[in-house]
Design brief:
Largest sheet: 17 strands, parallel
Number of domains: 3
Helix content: 10-25%
Number of helices: 11
Length: about 725
């Protein structure tokens, strides 16, 4: 009776049986390895010469099997359902293909340097020991490991896959090596699970590659990998560190809806085709430092939970960060955006920096939340820059930036600190870069030296900004709520180049909270008593002078020493408002400009007394007290009346006798007052010139009439 094992052609094996009732090839009993090897190679030699197209080794049970030299198979060989119970090193070369479907490798399997021509199948195979395929040559039709299970190490180092390798739904329980392997055709790893480390260091993919729905439970290394025409990591899960640094994507790459639970590294990566990270979640520190995106970069609905770094990145085409969330800090230092950059409806909860970036096209930050300290310092906006309906939670700085085209700023909502939620840091930290070394993964801000900290009072820093076109940068409030520039620094910026529509510079509420002197000043210059226009830089200097301390940054310290910069701000505001035919506010800015010049004169003296005299006893001070710098016809009219009356009293004093009692003096004053007032009025109107008093009054009258006429002319003009 022969071996009863049913073969693929549904007929029994029929070979002579051993003690357990099966042949030497199907027996599960202990077998001599040398005897088995001899019998198997003899069978192989016979089958290579017969007329059958397939060498059937289905269900064979192999003991340790490592024949010396390479053994060649000229036909398709079938090992389906076979069991390799010991060490297996075939040193195999196939011509027509081989099948290891549902085979079980109970010991180590070493396919090092095997050459597999034709279709090769390991579908559903189970590798209980180490599986080594280093240097494997896969020709023509590819190799299929779908649903295979590697319980220990799986090594495919330096393998050349000429056909299509299929690793669909494969489970790698141990470490998997694919380093330096070359995939010359498509490669599919969809649905696989890497329980151990996955090493693809310096691998090369020439065509379409898919890791869709793949799970990497440990560290995965794709460093120095070259990806081909199309690559997909859609819905992939990276539970630990994922390293794609120095990798190169020659075609489109899709990370849509992927999850990075560990650190995510894309340092110096190159994306030749479209890079899609839409709806991707980054749970830990992530970096794209110095990466190059030569096509579209899509980060739509992506979510960064920890620090995100895009230091020195280059975006050659459109960069879309629409509706993203940055819960930690975000760093875009020295990045370049050649195409449109869209950050609409993004949310930045922590510190964010776009310092030294270059936007060559549209830069859109509409409806964006900037809840932490935000920097756009030394940024070049070559195209349109749009900041509409933003929510600002801390300090927003554009210091030293340049606007070559239009810049829109409207509907800012400056959130009070006690109303903020999900804020990582409400305090400002002034810092500078120590060197140009790489940022630390553990502490992304370790390369900075902290030079000052404290609560900021300015919410918007627009100091030192360069504007190329008149009225190209606009601040505009919408509806009943004006744009709040009460805490905006404007020093060293030519604000005359800017346009202001429905803007408030007051840090006070409406008229009920204004001081009496502020309301009196507004009445004197015939302005609506709703708010007093005072820029932040002036209030800051007043506060610093009062406290005798300088607690702000370097640019503010310079401004504190030179009040003329504050005057330059008001001059620019006056010119801008006059150009917009908004003369009411322009008049207030003219007053503030003159006041700044008066304080600047006081700064030129080293002594307190000298400074007081320069501020209050100069011609500029006289100009202020007579007509509020030519703005108040009311004050000039009051002085005209006062001057006529005082000169009338002076004339009476010349002829009055003060020896009488009080009643007599008052009676004499009353009887002669009408005549003296008439004489004084004639002299004031340049119609009488008989005495020295007349000459002095004529000079005084000429000055006051000129000031009155100037103020009246400005009032009617405005």
């Amino acid at each position: 009776m022969g071996c009863p094992v049913i073969m693929v052609e549904e007929s029994p094996c029929g070979r002579p049986v051993l003690e357990d009732g099966k042949c030497i090839f199907h027996s599960n009993s202990r077998k001599d390895s040398k005897e088995f090897e001899k019998a198997f190679l003899k069978l192989l030699s016979e089958k290579n010469r017969d007329s059958e197209a397939v060498i059937n080794c289905q269900g064979f049970v192999f003991p340790d099997f490592a024949p010396e030299g390479r053994w060649h198979v000229a036909k398709f060989i079938n090992f389906d359902g076979a069991t390799f119970s010991g060490y297996f090193k075939p040193n195999l070369q196939t011509t027509k293909g081989a099948s290891f479907d549902r085979t079980r490798f109970e010991g180590d399997a070493d396919f090092t340097n095997c050459e597999l021509f034709g279709e090769i199948y390991f579908t559903g195979a189970i590798f209980e020991g180490d599986a080594v395929f280093d240097g494997l040559g896969v020709k023509k039709d590819g190799i299929d490991f779908s649903e295979a299970v590697f319980k220990k190490k799986a090594s495919f180092t330096n393998v050349v896959f000429e056909g299509i390798p299929l690793f669909l739904d494969v489970v790698f329980n141990g470490k998997a090596w694919f380093s330096q392997s070359r995939f010359l055709d498509e490669a599919w790893f969809s649905g696989s699970t890497f329980t151990g480390n996955a090493d693809f260091l310096s691998a090369s993919f020439s065509h379409e590659t898919s890791f869709k729905n793949t799970i990497f439970k440990e560290v995965c290394d794709f460093m120095y990998v070259k990806f081909g025409s199309q690559t997909s990591f859609e819905k992939a899960q990276f539970l630990r560190k994922a390293n794609f640094s120095e990798s190169r994507f020659l075609g489109e790459v899709n990370f849509e809806k992927s999850i990075f639970n560990g650190k995510c590294l894309f340092k110096n990566a190159e994306f030749e085709g479209r890079a899609d990270f839409s709806e991707t979640r980054f749970q830990e520190y992530s970096t794209f430092d110095r990466s190059v995106f030569r096509n579209q970069a899509l980060f739509i609905y992506a979510h960064f939970t920890e620090h995100a770094h895009f230091y020195g990145c280059t975006f050659n085409q459109e960069a879309v960060f629409y509706d993203m969330r940055f819960d930690g800090g975000a760093l875009f230092w020295h990045s370049r955006f050649d195409g449109e950059a869209t950050f609409t409806e993004c949310s930045f909860s922590g510190r964010v920096s776009f310092d030294h970036c270059r936007f060559k096209s549209l830069a859109e930050f509409d409806y964006t939340e900037l809840l932490g300290e935000t920097g756009f310092e030394d940024v070049t906006f070559s195209g349109v820059a749009s900041f509409r309906s933003n929510r600002i939670g801390s300090h927003l700085s554009f210091e030293g930036s340049e606007f070559s085209e239009e810049g829109f700023f409207s509907d800012f909502d400056f959130i009070e600190s006690d109303k903020l939620t999900d804020r990582s840091d409400s305090r400002v930290v002034l810092m500078r870069k120590v060197d140009s070394s790489e940022f630390s993964e553990k502490d992304p801000y370790s390369d900075f030296e902290f030079i000052e900290s404290g609560e900021r009072t300015d919410r918007l820093d627009f100091r030192g900004v360069l504007i190329r076109k008149v009225d190209s940068v606009r601040f505009e409030g919408r509806g009943e709520r004006p744009f709040d520039l009460a805490n905006a620094g404007l020093a060293f910026t030519d604000v005359s180049m800017m346009r202001f529509l429905n803007v408030s510079f007051s840090n006070k509420e409406r008229v009920g909270d204004l001081r009496f002197r502020d309301r009196l000043l507004l009445w004197l210059i015939n302005r609506t008593p709703n708010e007093i226009a005072t820029v932040y830089d002036e209030r800051l200097l007043h506060n610093e002078n009062a406290s005798k301390k300088g607690k702000s940054g370097i640019s503010i310290q310079l401004c504190a020493k030179r009040w003329e910069h504050v005057g330059a701000i008001y001059k620019g505001l006056r010119e801008s408002y006059e150009r917009a035919l908004n003369y009411d506010e322009a008049g207030q800015f003219h007053v503030r400009e003159m006041e700044a010049r008066r304080f600047a004169n006081g700064q030129k003296s080293r002594s307190k007394i000298g400074g007081w005299c320069r501020r209050n006893l100069s011609l500029l001070s006289v100009y202020k007290w007579l007509s509020v710098y030519g703005e108040s016809y009311r004050l000039a009219a009051i002085w005209i009346a006062v001057a006529v009356f005082l000169f009338a009293i002076l004339r009476w004093l010349q002829s009055a006798s003060l020896d009488s009692d009080i009643a007599g003096i008052l009676s004499d004053l009353a009887s002669s007052l009408g005549e003296n007032l008439s004489t004084s009025l004639l002299a004031f109107l340049q119609l009488k010139s008989e005495s020295t008093i007349d000459l002095v009054e004529r000079i005084t009258g000429a000055i006051l009439v000129v000031l009155f006429g100037m103020a009246l002319h400005r009032n009617f003009k405005r």
